[in-house]
Amino acid sequence: MMKEQAMLIAGKWKHKEQVIQVDDPGTGEVIGSVPNGSSEDMEEALESALEGKNIASSMSIRDRMNILTKAAELVDDNHEEISQLISSEGIKTITEARSEATRAAETLRLCAEEARRLTGETINFDQMPGNTDRHGYTYRFPLGIIGAITPFNDPFNLVVHKIGPAIAGGNAVILKPATQTPLSALWLTEKLLEAGLPERVMSVVTGSGGEVTPPLVESSEVRMITFTGGLPTGERIAKTAGLKKLSMELGSNSPFLVFNDANIDKAAEAAVAGSYGAGGQNCLSVQRIFVQKEVEETFTQKFLEKTEQLITGDKKSEETDIGPVISENVAKNIIADIRNAEEKGAEILCGGTRDHCFVQPTLLRNVPKRHSLYQEEIFGPVALLHTFSSYEEAIDLANEVNFGLQAGVFTNHLQTAHQTIADLHVGGVMINDSSDFRIDAMPFGGVKGSGIGREGPHTALMDMTEPRVACFKMDG
Questions:
Q1: Crossing angle for the helix pair 61-77 and 157-168, to the nearest 10 degrees
Q2: What is the CATH number that goes with domain 254-439?
């Protein structure tokens, strides 16, 4: 059933005459609508957050823990409902959506646990001569107002990764969810309120990013922007945000290195899963595969065999492995890029076709290095295959683009594994695993064009709070 969903501003659910339709990209069906918010709506949310930050900071650690834990329980209790919603409005198969819902509940619990561990440390003031009569400590206090901007590809768990630590730290938060997938975020908002979150602590403003985001980014009252999205948008935010904290995960172009001593069958399996999971619309997706020449033929054969077994189609079928890309225009652009690369000398080993929003899993060999498919983030079910002769060449190839989120490395040589950890310019190196691996508790982020800062409940909580020093002079 189509649902007309309101946005939450200043503690009230707000409808508007102008709405944005939410479509299922797999079927084209309109499944809901949300208000087409304006800059005035964002200004109202900012005004409310001035009160909300005081309410949030007055919540005890136990209050914050209880809210986050209860919200996790509500996600678990309504697991199939939110899974169906994630799948319907986005690009994930129902199996992938269920996994995301499970992870989101775990992330909420991790945030509750991190709230418990929000502690300071003692300072030895007497280490400096003349200060034996002083002692003190640090404790952490909230930043105040956090602005959160989230993408379409993980419309539920990535929202939790921003909202959860903000609440755990005692902050007010204003969320701008992705225009294509706002329903999951609003569902979560309802559950947080049901769990006891005071109304003015959180606002959710839906609408066009170009319209509602600038007041949020530019406001001097907002002390941190946490953003997941594309590099060009991240650069615009950085230029206009002013003096505030920034945490930005801006995607990647992940390298996947296969050395000749690796388990080739497992490497191929991991490469296929990492390349085509979530239809390749994952910042951690395997994109550039570099295989040592001696094992290229074996690896390629196994990769293609495993790819042929994948089923693309109906997201709601439990047999489906790959759903659609987010829109038909995106699908058209991906195919156009593939055709252009082919014209410039690339070889299509599989895929390279589409049916509406469904792009077949594609493997290209020898894409020219200057081509956009090689240099930029594809964000679709497309992987590139190249070879290397030596360790040094492999590292040079992996590092030569302006992204560095994570890398996958397959080798059974311990020295090679440790050396890649030192030499790869990325935020994470996954040994004998896909670059597309993450647990929600780990610090997550990248270098170069992949962003600044790290996500993960503990790391984000540290960013969303600040230390304050308390010093006592005993003879005052």
A1: 160
A2: 3.40.309.10
In single-letter form, the type of residue at position 476 comes to G
Alpha helices by DSSP H, 195-279? 209-218, 231-240, 264-276
Catalytic residues: 249, 283
Secondary structure in 3-state letters for 71-100? HHHHHHHCHHHHHHHHHHHCCCCHHHHHHH
CB count in 10 Å sphere of residue 249: 25
CA distance 430 to 432: 6
Handedness of CA 183, 184, 190, 193 (dihedral sign): negative
Predicted pLDDT of residue 475: 81
pLDDT single digits (tens) 258-275: 999 999 999 999 999 999
Which CATH architecture fits 3-250+450-470? 3-Layer(aba) Sandwich (3.40)
- The pLDDT value recorded for residue 333 is 98
Cα-based angle 447, 451, 456 (whole degrees, multiple of 5)? 95
Residues β-bridged to residue 408: 256, 430
**From CA 464, how far away is CA 222, in angstroms rounded?**
11
Nearest to 163 by CA among 181, 186, 180, 141: 186
Write out the two tokens for 355: 């049916």
Residue for token pair 């003692």: 122
- Which two structure tokens, joined as six digits, stand for 121? 């440390």
Contacts of 270 (CB under 8 A, 6+ apart): 256, 286, 408, 410, 432, 433, 434
pLDDT tens track for 313-354: 999 999 999 999 999 999 999 999 999 999 999 999 999 999
B/e letters for 428-453, b = 16+ CB within 10 Å, e = fewer, are: bbbbebbbbebebeeebbbebbbbbb
Question: pLDDT digit string (tens) for 422-472?
Answer: 999 999 999 999 999 999 999 999 999 999 999 999 999 999 999 999 999
How far is the C-alpha of 388 from the C-alpha of 343, rounded, in Å? 23
Query: Tokens 């987010």 sit at which residue?
Result: 326
Work out the mean pLDDT of the chain and round it to a whole number.
97
What does the block give as tokens for 327? 């829109």
Q: Say how far apart CA 175 and CA 185 lie, in whole Å.
A: 9
What pLDDT score does 3 carry? Answer: 74
The residue ranges of every structural domain in the chain are 3-250+450-470, 254-439
Compute φ and ψ for 127, nearest 5 degrees.
-70, -20
Number of Cβ atoms within 10 Å of the Cβ of 4: 10
pTM (2 decimals)? 0.96
Burial of 78 (0-12, 13-18, 19+ CB in 10 A): middle
pLDDT, position 476: 62
d(CA 265, CA 249): 31
Strand, helix or coil for residue 320:
coil
Distance of CA 7 to the CA centre of its chain: 22
